[in-house]
Amino acid sequence: MRKTRKSWLLMVSLIFVLATALAGCGGGKTADPAPATPPAANGDSGEKKDPPAEGSDEGKWVLGEKPLQFTAYAHYEGTDFPKWESVPLGKYLSEEKQVKIDVIAANGAHKQKLSAMIASDDLPDMIWTDRDDPMILSLQKEGKLVAFDPWLDKYPNLKTWMGDLDLLRHEDGKIYRFPNWYSSNPYGTAGYVVNKKIYDELGQPPLETTDDLYNYLKMVKDKYGDSIVPFEPHRAQDRQGLGVLYTAFGEQLSYSNLKANLLAVPKDGKLTPLLTDPTFREAQKYIAKLYREKLISQDAFSQTEDMVKEKVMTGRVAVFAGSSPTDIASKAQIELTKDDPNGGYFMIWPIHKPGLDKNKMTAGTYTSFGWNAAHITTAAEDPEAIFAFLDWMTGPEGMNVQFFGPEGKNWNGFDENGQPNFTENYDREEVTKISSENSPWQLVGNTSYIDPAKWKYMSTLPPEEQQWEVRYQQTVTWPTQLNVTEFVGLDAPPNSDEDIIAKSVDELFLEIYANSVMAKSDEEVDQILDQGNQSLMDLGYQQLLDFREAKWHANLEKQKK
Amino acid sequence: MPQATTEQQPSPISRQPKVHNKSLFRRLLKQWDVQLMVLPGVILVFIFAYLPMYGVITGFMDYSIFTGSNIFDNPWVGFKHFEAFFNAPEFERIIRNTIVISLLKFFIGFPAPIILALMLNEVRHMFFKRVIQTITYMPHFLSWVIVAGFVIAMLSTENGSVNMLLQSVGAIDEPINFLSLKQYFWTILISANVWKEIGFNSIVYLAAIASIDPALYEAADIDGASKTKQIYLITVPSIMPVVIIFMILAIGRLLDAGFEDILLLASNPVLRPVADVVDTYVYRVGLGANRYSYGIAIGLFKSVIAVFLLTIANYAARRSGNSLW
């Protein structure tokens, strides 16, 4: 026994000695190259031969003149860039214009992947993610991002099409992000999609007010029972259809009030708590009533996106609402009308509470800078070339190539408004294919340019031949989206007090939100929300509101300028 | 390390001859050819289990990811993150859920494969036994993503097969929203776990049963022992050493209440009060919210308790002569 213990002691101490030794080695190994090599040199694209042409001032980067190769990484859950050469845009650019992009894939673990790349100081040249992703804020703070300011005039497309760039600036006053789908006009597709077949079978009752909706859903439930979901809100933890229902209870009511990065109601220049807001409560009581009477999908909070898709694609929903219901519904439209030309879906004007002005309903929100943004890191060997390339992509030529293919086939030259001249060889099916295949690589979309260009062609077609979603964008969804640009960038810096509060407030809010939807009575809704508000306050919700309010006011100041 | 030496009589799993009076080094040298085979495993364990362990000291620092592996550039903060965890509003329910789910998994998930093995052992029809064995161990090879997908689809209220079955036999009038009601969650979680792992875990017990000397059963038969008696008096005692070793290992993992299974099955925020455990919390807060030091501190706290539990379990098991060390 004693012998055994002794040998164990020996073994354990040996392991510790070895561990220390190896740990020392490991530390030294990684610490060594960091100071020796500047950040630019540790990119893995050793094939690049040309030195950066920054020295000469005339060295303006022009597409196709010399090779450009860089690494790109999409920081999104479950979304990686497809291989560059696998999409028409990448095939054309790599074959004809010497632009090659190497994809860095997260393979489903994006948070781990980016953390690992930062910790090992092996950053991709370009990171494409949400505009205000906390990791991007940290990267900027640590000086790992490249500011675009010196090149904004040299390559002017972003400045031309985006207009005011002030709200894009980070705290140090510089611009580090290249926005995607920025626009000065409303866009977005939040709203309600209605199953046409069921609507016809029920005698096309009015569907305008919340009462109409309730009655209609009851009719659906009575007639079809369990076989049809009366109201499908998509994944309710992301608000989606339930958030759209919330907007029915006020004029110009913002869907974004429910989003994690706001969670407040702006009122008279102040941010007030959401859970005590009378309009929110009214909406929650209405939603809870629908849920209780099984008019809303009972799986709303537990289902996966695939389950939602399956229901919509097979026409098993009567009303489908969400922050972008057309994504699924436009595909379902094609499938369902194959068998039955009168089937499919149509969009309705957003529902409103009786007494409100229906023309002031806003089912969704948009900001002038879209959703995602491209960021260039200090790992890039020639950041100017990457910026210039992105600027080419967002300009008229780049946008046209992405949507209509290379110049010459479907389009040729520009008209007096700068829009493409479509040729006689214009092939509609090919164009649809090109633009949908390119869509994962549309990094820096330019809505203000491409929407009129698409519409230029579409408007020459009779209405029934127009694309389903494009038709409703023009007539329903675009006029009913609210501009919430003033509320962007209210996030606190990572690991600050407010950031930690925001995370726990968001988590708890979701729990309270779901509980209030499943409440048994109006009184219970009130009770859950009262108690919930108290719990949020205990977590420091008020401090968060004050912080966000100050940032919001700063945004308003910037906008006034 | 493979020498499990005890002063009692050798158990089936420690059959090495007792060598007490030579030094460890001499003994190792003598069987160098055998030790050579162990070496790759030792190196592997060392590199992937021991070496990364020095990172736990970041639990006592404010770790910034930008310092990379130069972890000593970070400021020391002592027990700040541990205190923050103990004072977190979620602390109580996380600990409670971790303990409850772990104990449920232990008391149901641990004996289940033993019972299955005992039952399979009594099946005389070879073909039937093989089929059952194959069917029960297959789910082990499915990832939790797939299993959770099955479970969610089966339990959904719209077109969920469980609800349809219950409705068609008249057990319920309205579909039950299984995945949104707190009272069902633990049952669902444990059942899914048992379903997934029961067959695979029973293999080792079946092997242990197979090694029992048939003469024992024959003798019992002659003495007139019934089938049930034979199970209690021969099978169970014979596989006891294996059961105890696996029980010690299970106790070591006791606080691993689960991670993927809970993360995937409890996507509904309503379930968080019954589903949030240490590991899911570490993942959400540590990785999701980039509070690395905080996550590491909680992970370390959990590991310390696990080591403590393992030591106690081993101490208790040593009395039966089947301890790990």
From TrEMBL, chain A:
Source species, domain of life: Bacteria
Protein name: ABC transporter substrate-binding protein
The keyword Lipoprotein is annotated on this UniProt entry: yes
UniProt keywords, alphabetically: Cell membrane, Lipoprotein, Membrane, Palmitate, Signal
Organism whose genome encodes this protein: Paenibacillus solani
Region (Disordered) location: 27-60
Pfam families tied to this protein: SBP_bac_1
Signal peptide extent: 1-23
From TrEMBL, chain B:
Transmembrane annotation, as ranges: 36-57, 99-120, 141-157, 198-219, 231-255, 292-317
Domain ABC transmembrane type-1 as annotated: residue spans: 95-313
GO cellular component: plasma membrane
Subcellular location: Cell membrane
Matching PROSITE patterns: ABC_TM1
Keyword Mitochondrion among UniProt keywords: no
Membrane topology, as annotated: Multi-pass membrane protein
UniProt keyword terms in alphabetical order: Cell membrane, Membrane, Transmembrane, Transmembrane helix, Transport
GO BP term, example: transmembrane transport
Taxonomy, superkingdom: Bacteria
Family, similarity comment: Belongs to the binding-protein-dependent transport system permease family.
PANTHER family per UniProt: BLL4140 PROTEIN
UniProt name for this protein: Protein lplB
Source species: Paenibacillus solani
